[in-house]
Amino acid sequence: MRGKLFIAGLLSLMVAVPSFAKETKALQVQEEISKEKQLVNKIYALLEVDRISEETLLKLVKEKKITIAELYASKDNQICMLTNKFATTYDSDKDGLSDYDEIFKYKTNPNKADSDGDGIIDSDWNERKEYTYTVNYKTKIFNLYDEDSLAMAFQDGRVIKKTDEYSEIELIVYPENTYYEYLYENPNWKADYSGMKTYLEPTVLCNWDNQMREDLINELKQSGIDPDQLTDVELVKQVTAWIEKNNKRLFTNGWDIFLQVENGKVVEPKDKKIIEKMRKAFPTESFQQIRDSMILGKEMYYNKTIGECLGSSTYYATIFRALGIPTRMVAMTPMGYPRQIQLIDKVQQSSYRELLNKTLSMPGWSNHYHTQVYIGNMWVDVEYSNVGNNFANDYFAGYITFNTFNDYSQFAVLANNLWYKHMFIERNKNFSSWIPYELLEAYDLEAVHSLS
Q: Which residues, at least 6 apart from 23, have a Cβ–Cβ distance to it below 8 Å?
């Protein structure tokens, strides 16, 4: 009898524990919501005008009536979306790091220049690593990089050695960044972004025109997507899903990286090695058919085909620029290649080392292109239908961002001059293989402090 009572009591306890955990979680959620509401009420109470705007919020920050961290902690869509407009450049504690990056990337205190009080400012190269897990690389790449692009959302980079053709670069990657935890939506995106001409106008490859825009909008409406009725985030999410559903992807064999542009037009390659790569993927098609099915944005739209990552990023940029969403293209490359896999042994966190293993296990050489769209007053990475893709902690972990541009034709000149020469004509003696990037060192560091 006692045994039965004991088992019955144990069973009732087992039922009660999950129930208690759910109740505790619900209370925590309610407390968070309550805090957020209190912050929203505080912000609106502080405003001296009826209409909330970027200017009125920035005024509160400058007068030290509210902090940028508190603005984001409100999680109010309008407040956070407007805060995005100035937080990426505003530096409350004058430590050389924006409040935005301190909150979402470094996890340091945006209102205290020396978060841990050790006498070293937070922007110091090593100090910025102390509040979050980081993966650190030294790598060698050709001079196709843009130095500003080395400091993108998920990474910091600095050049430690530069020659006429290649550089050695030190990078810090932040897998625990929370940039895209919330995507705040702008309902007035058409008017707000119309002045960003550089990222909206047609280019050599992203060659949309008014007729294409009209056809695209009509086709989207037939699919139940009306750009005029959606916020910028809603539009991008729905259109990326529509793109992936309605287009056929083509294998290019990588020849498109070395495409030739003359007088603003993509021309048939003359180099035998590039022709050989192209013909391996397209043995019978004419060059015009190949170009129109995987290189030019407008032609891909009408053919309902997309090339690999380069063609895909061109296609996405063409579509979104035609709709009025500012878009730019991002170039990435792995930090090393398969024969260097032993160099990641110093990465102690097994789950992240596994991600790096996958990157370095890819045969041959690789690079990757994707798009960034400007939504919610910030640049957001898009990888196919994944809007807000965290490249520091997914399939592309171990890739480094090294350049951004409006059209690949701008970048192709560099690729043909440096990559092509090294890979097909004469290998640069400072690289140990024909692959145009080389890992020198890799290790990770756990956080040593926490603000919470």
A: none
Please state the domain extents for the chain.
Answer: 2-87, 189-445
Q: Taking a C-beta distance cutoff of 8 angstroms, is the pair 264, 255 a contact?
A: no
DSSP 45: H
List the one residue out of 223, 230, 437 whose CA is nearest residue 336: 437
Q: What is the pLDDT of residues 236-273, one digit of tens each?
A: 999 999 999 999 998 888 788 888 898 899 999 888 88
Identify the CA nearest to 172 among candidates 121, 126, 135: 135
Q: Which of 114, 73, 67 is nearest to 95 (CA)?
A: 114
Q: List the structure tokens of 352.
A: 């992240």
Cβ-based neighbour number of residue 370 at 10 Å? 23
DSSP class of residue 421 equals I
Alpha helical stretches, state H, 247-336: 272-281, 287-294, 297-303, 309-323
DSSP β-bridge partners for residue 261: 266
What is the pairing mode between strands 386-387 and 378-383?
antiparallel
Q: Which residue has the tokens 């007053």?
A: 377
Beta-bridge mates of residue 438: 140
How many other CB atoms sit within 10 Å of the CB of residue 321? 25
Condensed to tens digits (0 to 9), the pLDDT of residues 403-438 reads 999 999 988 888 888 888 888 888 899 998 888 899
- The answer to whether 203 and 347 have CB atoms below 8 angstroms apart is no
Q: How many CA atoms lie within 13 A of 447 on its CB side?
A: 16
What's the gap between Cα 237 and its chain centre?
Answer: 15
Structure tokens at 105: 């990337």
Contact 297/323 with Cβ under 8 angstroms?
no
Backbone torsions φ then ψ of 406, nearest 5 degrees: -90, -25
Query: Are the C-beta atoms of 335 and 400 separated by less than 8 Å?
Result: yes
- pLDDT of 178-199, one tens digit each? 999 999 999 999 999 999 999 9
Structure tokens, 305: 């085909």
CA distance 184 to 74: 12
d(CA 185, CA 346): 41
Give 27: exposed, middle or buried? Use CB within 10 Å, 0-12, 13-18, 19+.
exposed
- Residues composing the chain: 452
Residue 399, beta-bridge partner list: 334
Picking from 57, 51, 85, 89, the residue whose alpha carbon sits closest to that of residue 192 is 85
At 210, list the tokens.
């008014």
